[in-house]
Amino acid sequence: MKKLKIEELHRVTPEQYKMLDKLPLVVVLDHIRSLNNVGSVFRTSDAFRVNKIVLCGITAVPPDAEIHKTALGAENCVEWQYFKETKEAVLALQSENYTVLAIEQVKGSVMLDKLVLDKNKKYAVVLGNEVKGVQQEVVDICNGCVELPQYGTKHSLNVAVTAGIVIWDFFKQLQ
Q: Model confidence over 79-120: pLDDT tens digits?
């Protein structure tokens, strides 16, 4: 097997990317403190054509050199929006007929591997702070919660890793 060169991958330009149909998914980042995590979410969102990223609270916004380190330019392709309060972002998305799901461990959550999505609906997922998770007041107004099954000794994954898993699963179901 021979590794492909960049020019052999036939990637679209940023201008072409902006014109492509997007996945009916918005990723909401609730007070993410690591700019590397933010950049990574941009890059993953670009790969799977996420509709938009909503950055909330202390989450940094582009342009930023630290975000760019991991986003590698995806921050210039994926549409994004900023809200001071995550709760406001969730309510705005719900008013646009998004089903908003917090990615959080709560009583009654649906395990990601059991989640069935409707291709006729639009979804938003809320990913929480690296230490505190999704704020309770945000969980309270979401349409539901999704949890990632985990079988080791730790009770959580890095937020960028979680985003990648969740975005991939939504992509598989909604594309």
A: 999 999 999 999 999 999 999 999 999 999 999 999 999 999
The secondary structure of residue 157, as a DSSP letter, is -
List the domain range (segments joined by +) for residue 87: 18-174
Cα 126 to chain centroid distance, Å, stands at 7
What angle do the packed helices 35-47 and 159-174 form, to 10 degrees? 20
Contact 128, 134 (CB under 8 A): yes
- Stated pTM of the model: 0.97
Q: What is the pLDDT of residue 52?
A: 98
Q: Is residue 141 part of a domain?
A: yes
171: three-class secondary structure by DSSP: helix
How, if at all, do strands 80-83 and 50-56 pair? parallel
* Cβ burial 59-90 (10 Å sphere, 16+ → b, else e): bbebeeeebbebbeebbebbebeebeebbebb
CATH of the domain at 161: 3.40.1280.10
Domains in the chain, number: 1
